[in-house]
């Protein structure tokens, strides 16, 4: 039961962080492109790489990994939003933006999960 509570508390925190950061980024950069989801997914990729590597290195306990990787980052990242926003760009006749957004999300996510993973190796 304790594990479920860790995931639930982390998920609530991640969701609030996602909402706050997303609103701030979108307000700062404007509504013409889903910058907030791109930023949240990129940061989430970095921090999941970092937390999972630190867990493998023994720096984070299994409970901390559950709280951070499954809870906080599960509530923070926004793949379903990414999918919908890509579809909306396509349906709006903006195939170029949709392609850029999807490719940018994928590349940033992969690069940042690798960066977080490597940083975790240095810190661990």
UniProtKB/TrEMBL annotation:
Keywords: Cell membrane, Ion channel, Ion transport, Membrane, Metal-binding, Sodium, Transmembrane, Transmembrane helix, Transport. Its main location: membrane. Na(+) is not transported, but it plays an essential structural role and its presence is essential for fluoride channel function. The chain crosses the membrane at residues 32-54, 66-84, 99-119. Na(+) binds at residues 74, 77. It is found in: Cell membrane. It catalyses: fluoride(in) = fluoride(out). It is a multi-pass membrane protein. HAMAP family: FluC (MF_00454). Fluoride-specific ion channel. Important for reducing fluoride concentration in the cell, thus reducing its toxicity. NCBIfam families: crcB (TIGR00494). Belongs to the fluoride channel Fluc/FEX (TC 1.A.43) family. This is Fluoride-specific ion channel FluC. It comes from Thermus composti.
């Amino acid at each position: 039961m304790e594990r479920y509570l860790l995931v639930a508390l982390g998920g609530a925190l991640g969701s609030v962080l996602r909402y706050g950061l997303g609103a701030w980024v979108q307000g700062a950069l404007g509504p013409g492109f889903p910058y907030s989801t791109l930023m949240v997914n990129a940061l989430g990729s970095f921090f999941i790489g970092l937390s999972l590597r630190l867990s493998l290195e023994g720096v984070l306990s299994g409970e901390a990994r559950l709280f951070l990787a499954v809870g906080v980052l599960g509530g923070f990242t926004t793949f379903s939003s990414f999918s919908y926003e890509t579809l909306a760009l396509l349906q709006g006749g903006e195939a170029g933006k949709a392609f850029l957004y999807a490719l940018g999300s994928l590349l940033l996510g992969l690069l940042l999960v690798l960066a977080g993973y490597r940083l975790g190796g240095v810190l661990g």
